[in-house]
Design brief:
76 residues; alpha+beta; two-stranded antiparallel sheet; 17% helix; globular
């Protein structure tokens, strides 16, 4: 099972200030942060900052609902 999960992963390189997704978008991916930090933004305000190692994006997939926040890269 672990090997199947690893094979399904796709590595992405992001830059500072890149938007990973925006609030309201349909969720199609789950994200693992290996290096750096991302900002969780709601109504234009940062409400949380996630630092590697971490993950996000699972709720939209599991609950079949739109993204509930915008995620922006803070550092790589």
């Amino acid at each position: 099972e672990k090997l199947a999960v690893v094979k399904a992963l796709t590595e992405m390189t992001m830059n500072e200030k890149d938007l990973i997704f925006q609030k309201g978008e349909i969720g199609e991916h789950f994200y693992l942060v290996i290096e750096g930090q991302v900002s969780v933004i709601k109504d234009g305000e940062e409400v949380n900052r996630l630092m590697a190692p971490c993950f996000f994006g699972e709720r939209a997939l599991m609950e079949n609902e739109p993204r509930n926040a915008t995620i922006q890269v803070v550092s790589t």
